[in-house]
Amino acid sequence: MALLQSCRFLAAPRLAAAARASSWWSHVEMGPPDPILGVTEAYKRDTNSKKMNLGVGAYRDDNGKPYVLSCVRKAEAMIASKKMDKEYLPIGGLADFTRASAELALGENSEAFKSGRYVTVQGISGTGSLRIGANFLQRFFKSSRDVYLPKPSWGNHTPIFRDAGLQLQAYRYYDPKTCSLDFAGAMDDISKIPEKSIILLHACAHNPTGVDPRQEQWKEMAAMVKKRNLLVYFDMAYQGFASGDINRDAWAVRHFIEQGINIVLSQSYAKNMGLYGERAGAFTVICSDAEEAKRVESQLKILIRPMYSNPPLNGARIASIILNTPELRKEWLVEVKGMADRIIGMRTQLVSNLKKEGSSHNWQHITDQIGMFCFTGLKPEQVERLIKEFSIYMTKDGRISMAGVTSGNVGYLAHAIHQVTK
Amino acid sequence: MAAAASIFASVPRAPPVAVFKLTADFREDADSRKVNLGVGAYRTDEGQPWVLPVVRKVEQLIAGDGKLNHEYLPILGLPEFRANASRIALGDDSPAIKENRVGSVQSLGGTGALRIGAEFLRRWYNGTNNTATPVYVSSPTWENHNSVFLDAGFKDIRTYHYWDAAKRGLDLQGLLDDMEKAPEFSIFILHACAHNPTGTDPTPDQWKQIAAVMKRRFLFPFFDSAYQGFASGSLDKDAWAVRYFVSEGFELFCAQSFSKNFGLYNERVGNLTVVGKDADNVQRVLSQMEKIVRTTWSNPPSQGARIVATTLTSPQLFAEWKDNVKTMADRVLLMRSELRSRLESLGTPGTWNHITDQIGMFSFTGLNPKQVEYMIKEKHIYLMASGRINMCGLTTKNLDYVAKSIHEAVTKIQ
């Protein structure tokens, strides 16, 4: 088969004619179906009125509906009234947005922020920011091609880094026996990572497990990472959304920088501002000094220009107005806490309902974990039963999106989980 | 806390992108006579950006629609946008659409569409992961074309003859010769209309000759369509070449931008149209493009696509849009004829019919780098070193000054 395919593309005119008469794309394989999409498709087809979609990675309110933040609506009204033009943004994006983004992540009192020894460029939400960073490291970080991801990590991390030309390795992270952090395993693996490799850390609300290190554990990890001289890549997609407190959620990022670790960082406003489809995000490099930051910035632009020229304005402008307008910023902080609190409340209710059902299992991990996702510890056969018998849809790894849980269906969920685990 | 030598200590300072540096210099210039003929964005006769009236109207509709939210779009984009964007390029009665062998990928501007197409071709065209397939860009071309294909992994970017500086027109014979000599299966980036930077397009007859050679040599057509409607004022006329190739049975890509013809520059609205042999091939191609999109931007921004989709699906708004597009195209045509007539009245050495023969936003004036430098430094008129001017930078108020300055540059500097 391979020989036949290679023959088709040699310069022999007759063979080429045959190839041309068919399609250029005859050999293109069908891409594998997206597993999470598959969950949603099956959910849509289900006619059970009690059905639940726990695959969705977007926030839902207590009625199961998408939630447009009030501060976002206000920012949009402000934008509409100003009748601004639609001129191209600079390649690095909206300056008011990138500066506010850096300040949000680093903290207004951060030495790195105040000294200007950073560069922040606007990226296409979290994915686009990760990709810019990955491409930048591929081009300029010559000491290693290896990116160490926690096991497990967000499914899209691997193809992003791979497409950027880097290689993937892993360090232990999640302990399926306890449904919590395998701290000893993580520290052991990190201590053995070759110097000057790249290590990716989830700043908060680890996706998919919801398992975050405690501050004391972060301190030890920072010390180890520094000892191993690793380049730290933080992915912060849930600042504010995890604990409800933006400073608390950025603690690890800020601690690492304070320890003299010049991190790179990608941020997303998809969840914490509900700006999903507007693609607002940012990529930051902490540098030695402002001069280096300028050089790095110039190279980031060289990477961005052949990808999409310059970023989309709408989401960044909404985020910028919110971050830079005191009353709106206050309102946002209240709303993001509201979202986080609802999630935390659902976790608590799920555990108490499981107890009420009479479950004898230890479900503490559900409330120990944080953020949108929860690794329930359910096995594939149990997940299968939840889907088939109860119309509760989740991915095979037992991950549920707490955003899909409401006060109206948490009882049903607890009942179902108890049935398949008792 | 002594910092070890930074890992980025050796990162060199990259040169700024020329066209943006030009605008930056223009902004800093305090001279009241200054004119910006650099970056390619439309300007009114007052020298101001222009948000199309139909766009403002649709934005109000969107803002007032309480049912809309900011949820993720599908990976390939807003369905109503994709289908209608491709329909605009290929025509309502396109056989390819009727035969269900057209695919679309909503992209971040024309650049994003080019990049997704390039990434796909590098992975799946002419074998798998064949980085050696030659990619041909016109000489000259939009400078970002090279970078898009290089960053997508292609190793062999070549040029094909295009601009004939001596006769200030298309070097058709050179172009056809290059196509004859190109290795089979080479990829050719073709400007669908309003060639950037020369403003010089092949005639329909010349396109037919180009298509014939490309068919015979199994060359892949990748159209870059950034100015549909903006060039002649007619959507159909500006899409003639793409549609001709489709009617000749080619499989092709067409990267579309709605930056200029909708004035939606900063919303990053683009579409990659894929024309294949049949629906099955197109489906498989799209499934692989989805994977590429997923690691580049996951899913595209919704605002701009909504504006375009709403406009294209409403007969009344669509008519308004075509009218707005014609307004822009007509002003450019007027500036062309006004500039030419002034240069001819002044008796500026050389011939100036190319100013009105050329089409679209740009004109290759024929000014050489020294003359360009004179224009910038002495006259505070900013244009690209190639002699390219953006006709949109001309207004009834600055026409005289620009014409006189060109006259001076041509007579004083050789």
UniProtKB/TrEMBL annotation, chain A:
Catalytic activity reads:
L-aspartate + 2-oxoglutarate = oxaloacetate + L-glutamate
Give GO BP annotations, semicolon-separated.
L-aspartate catabolic process
Any single Gene Ontology cellular-component annotation: mitochondrial matrix
Q: From which residue to which does the signal peptide run?
A: 1-18
This protein's cofactor list reads: pyridoxal 5'-phosphate
| Key word Protease present | no
Q: Which UniProt keywords apply?
A: Aminotransferase, Mitochondrion, Pyridoxal phosphate, Signal, Transferase
GO molecular function ontology, one term from the record: L-aspartate:2-oxoglutarate aminotransferase activity
User: Subunit info?
Assistant: Homodimer.
Q: What else is known?
A: In eukaryotes there are cytoplasmic, mitochondrial and chloroplastic isozymes.
The name this protein carries in UniProt is Aspartate aminotransferase
Source organism per UniProt = Aythya fuligula
UniProtKB/TrEMBL annotation, chain B:
Which reaction(s) does the protein catalyse, per the Swiss-Prot or TrEMBL entry?
Answer: 3-sulfino-L-alanine + 2-oxoglutarate = 3-sulfinopyruvate + L-glutamate; (2S)-2-aminobutanoate + 2-oxoglutarate = 2-oxobutanoate + L-glutamate; L-cysteine + 2-oxoglutarate = 2-oxo-3-sulfanylpropanoate + L-glutamate; L-aspartate + 2-oxoglutarate = oxaloacetate + L-glutamate
* Keywords carried by this UniProt record: Amino-acid biosynthesis, Aminotransferase, Cytoplasm, Pyridoxal phosphate, Transferase
Q: Name one Pfam family in it.
A: Aminotran_1_2
Q: What is its EC number?
A: 2.6.1.1
Record bears the keyword Hydrolase: no
What InterPro entries is this protein classified in? Aminotransferase_I/II_large, Asp_trans, NHTrfase_class1_PyrdxlP-BS, PyrdxlP-dep_Trfase, PyrdxlP-dep_Trfase_major, PyrdxlP-dep_Trfase_small
Which cellular compartments is it found in? Answer: Cytoplasm
For whether the record's keyword set contains Membrane, the answer is: no
Instruction: Identify which top EC class this enzyme belongs to.
Output: transferase
Which cofactor is essential here?
pyridoxal 5'-phosphate
Q: Which GO terms describe its molecular function?
A: L-aspartate:2-oxoglutarate aminotransferase activity; L-cysteine transaminase activity; pyridoxal phosphate binding
Q: Biological process GO terms, please? A: aspartate biosynthetic process
Query: Residue limits of the Aminotransferase class I/classII large domain?
Result: 33-406
Coiled coil start-end? none
Can you name a GO cellular component term?
A: cytosol
* More info: In eukaryotes there are cytoplasmic, mitochondrial and chloroplastic isozymes.
Q: How does it assemble?
A: Homodimer.
What protein family does this chain belong to? Belongs to the class-I pyridoxal-phosphate-dependent aminotransferase family.
In Swiss-Prot or TrEMBL terms, this protein is called Aspartate aminotransferase
Upper classification of the organism:
Eukaryota, Metazoa, Chordata, Craniata, Vertebrata
